[in-house]
Structures are given as structure tokens and as C-alpha cells.
## 1
Amino acid sequence: MQPLWCCIAIAGVLTTSAMAADRPAPCGSIGSLAAAEVVTPAEVGEYLTSLAGSAHFDLRKACARWAALDPPDSVRRRGTQAATPAPAPRFILFPRTGLTTSALVTQLERDRRVRKLSQSRAFVAVEFDARLTTTELRQRLAEPTIGYFEPDCDGPDFVTTSAAPALQASAIAPAARCWQRGARANFPDDPCMDELWGHAYIGWDPTVAANSRPRLVAVLDSGVDMGHEDLAGSLWLDDRQAFAALQLPCASTAGCYPHGTQMAGTIAGRMNNGVGVAGVAPNSRLMPVVISRVEHGNLVRLSAIASAIESAGANKANIINISAKWPVDSRAVREAIATATGGPQPVRLLVTGYTASFAWDESLRETYPSRYRCLPGVIAAVPGDARGEDLQVARAAHADPTDSRLRAPGVDIVVTTTHNEDGSYALAQAAGASSAAAYLTGAAALAWGTAPLDKCDARQIKAILFCRSKRTESSPYPWVHVEFLRQVSALGADASCGAALAALDCPP
């Protein structure tokens, strides 16, 4: 098996250097890349080395090779992209040790073959002239000011993680259209409460939810419909130009891809307002950050995803939700997650879905960002449907927070949606890892907002969720369960986090 990183050699010629027999875990390489003039993923270095004569760099081909979607000797282009021109060469560049990104930008601005530049905290995203020859590209990537580079990929394998789109209201039997009913007579009065099987299954208590304190949840997705009646009062928006550009493409219209709005309703839809659904953490605030295309579920470039994660952390989100997957270990994204969550002592949580895809050799590989669950601040949600199967009263004795996988409801979820003339709701019949991540995000926000657990830090909240999880006979993964919040609420708001942990019989 090839090593994850390869060294780039001398005088602009790229060669692969085997640094280890096995591909290291992604978390093991954070902040510890081998000292070399320039490094890049091994597969990318191999692809660049394979280009001979007048062959031009093909970004899609490089990304497919990096993602193990094409075999090393493949020359084909994948899917419908074969009929479209190859995109211009795009790269994420990290400056060498001791050099700032500003200095790297200054150098690149002098290059007349650079077409676009954007600067982030740790890297620079660059687009070169599409007419650049492979020799010219190699020379630029071998500049001593560049410490590491990777392709700035996007494409059909960078997607949101719903297994199927939500059904339109017209496709749902009238009897199932709970949102068309009037308000319920009992608390909470949201008409779809009886259809939210996942709430009951994870031990959700409306009184606890009503008394919880708001947490700020960044939803990195396709945007959130800011006019939706169950979400409008929950949105946190920033008027600064740089961050507003990440928030507004979908937040100001109902005409965008509905995935982000669907996840937002599960996380923090308003409760007891007489309409629609109630989110798991209904008092929480939602920070929409757009990382997918307005018109479909394909994601934006890796550099934009990394910048979005950085922005969510910089704007003090308590929890970051990413219901998406991509097939490559991007240093830009990995370091953005490590920085945003706080590294070894996490200050915030990132929740994503547990996902896997088949490589070209038919091996099943866990995808990203799910694979970053080895980071202390990351949790991956495994989608499940255990209706009719009792959760055991005893807690899951095998629940290991270092494994970072918890099961959560992921099937037949009533969700808020966009561009729906029938009340802006739909039944998602197979929402998969996305809905599971939204449920787990809501559970984390609810726990963190319930006094006295609001005094706990991110590490303690993650530990509590695993400590108090439950299990079924059919699942190797423990189910998230928040019934314990009734117990900690009884301690009173003045109690400490330590006292709550002791009362719950959870390790400090």
C-alpha cells in the first residue's frame, strides 16, 4: 500500500518517496508532516510524475487518483465529465515553515499565469491558467516557498449524505401530511410531534427541551431558508461581508437545494408554535454556512469547505454539523477541523455522519469527514431504524468515546424543507447519515444547554453522550439517549459540571 504523503524532489521533477509501509491514520499526521521542501499526497505525486510529453494536468483525473476512484494506470475520465472541458489547474498551497500565507500570496501575485487567489488562515487557494503546460506547473509547485500542495477538488463524489431526497408533499398520502393538521391540544402543540418517532426513541423530553439554554450550531450545508416558519426565529446571521458571502446564497430564498433546511429543522426547529415539527434542541440558534451548490447537493471545493469550518469556529459556534462526505484526506480540511474544535482539549464539537464508499478495487473505505472521528472533538453518527426494538435499560457498557460513533435515528424523518407549496414540510423516507448527524447534533446541543451541563466543556459533553448511551442487541454501536437530562435538571442550575457527572455515574 502506498504511503499517504510523498516527497517532491529537486529541480521541479516530482518523485515518490516511500515513507512508511502503511497509510497512517489521518489524525496521526496532523501537525507532523515529514520535513521536506514540498509534500503532496502520494497519489497526486504519482499522477504528476506520470504526465509525459505534452500531456496537460487534468484536475479531475488527479482528484480521482487521489480518492482511489480510478486505478493507478487508468486514463479514463469518469461519468458525464468526459464531455466537458477539463477545469483549470487548482491547488491548495501551504507555505513552507517560517513563511506566512501573506508572503506566499505576494509571490503568487507576481505570476502572470495565476488567474485567481484566495487567502485563508493557513493556506492559499490558487487557480492557474488552463493553458499552463505540465512542465510549467511542476516548476511552480516546486517553488521553495511552498511547503505542501494538494488539488483543490470538488465533483460528483463530494456530496451531502442523504441516501435519497425528501419526497415532495404531492407524493405523500394525505393521511401522512401531519403538517396540514391544526395545533395539538397538548404540549407541545406542534402537529407533527406524533410522527417524530426519533424524539421518543432517544428519550427526548419536551419540558427539558423547553427549559434548555440556547447553543449556537453551525450547519455547514446548502443553506437554510430564512423565511421558513419553523426556522426564521432561530437563525444567526452575520452582516460582515466575508462571512455573509458564506451564509446568504440560500438563506435568503426558498429556491435552493433543500438539504440544509431539512437538517436545520431536525436540529432546532421551533417548538410549541402550533406548526410543523419541533427540533431536538428547539431553543438553539442556527448559523447557516453554505458548502454545497445552490441547485444540487454536490459540494464546493475543498478550500471553501476548509474556510467554512474555520469561519464557524471563529464565529464561536458551539457545535458544527456537516452532513456531507468526500473521498480524500485534505490537509486543509483536516487542520481546519483540528483548529476549530480545539485539538486535544476540544472547545467545540463537530458532528458528521458515519459514511463509507467503494474504491476502484471494490474495497470499502470510510470517507471524510467521518474518518476524522479520531479527533477528540469529532463524533460520527451512524443512521439507524430500531422502531419496535427496545433499548436496554442498562447503559451500553462497551460505549467507547474514543471510537466516536453513536447511532441515531436516520429513517422516515419528518423534516422542514424549501420550495414546497404544501406547507414547507416533507417526509424523508431514507435520509440516512445526514438525518442521524442532525439528530446527534441536536442531542449534543440539548445536553450542553441543559443546566448544569451548560458548565461542562466539549470533551465532557462528548463523554456524557457516550457514558449515557444505550444499546440494542442488533447494533454494534450504542444509541444516543438523552433521558438522563431529566435527572441532571433536578440538580439545579447552581450545581457544577463535576457534580452532574458524579450524579450520572460518568467519569470526570
Note: The chain has two domains: 5-153, 160-168+190-388+403-454.
## 2
Amino acid sequence: MVYLANYGIVHGDLACRNVLVFRFHNSNPQENLVKLTDFGLTRASTLYS
């Protein structure tokens, strides 16, 4: 959240359920890679059914 605030980014629903962890390093947190999502904006689709 501090990183986002430093860049003036506002996420309307920042919660653990909206964070995808792609890369996690115990010893070097600078190497962590996460992506923020908002699954509340998803819609049902019949494209892949």
C-alpha cells in the first residue's frame, strides 16, 4: 500500500483476495512480484463455455 501511495495510485478494493503473488522470495523482498486485480469487475461470459 505504501508503494501505491508513493506513486499516487488508488485501488478502490485493496484486499488480500485481490492480490496475486507471482514470485515470492523470503530472503530478498525486492524480488517479490505481485499483481493487483479486482475480480468484482469480472462478468459472466459464454465465450469459453
Note: The mean pLDDT is 82.
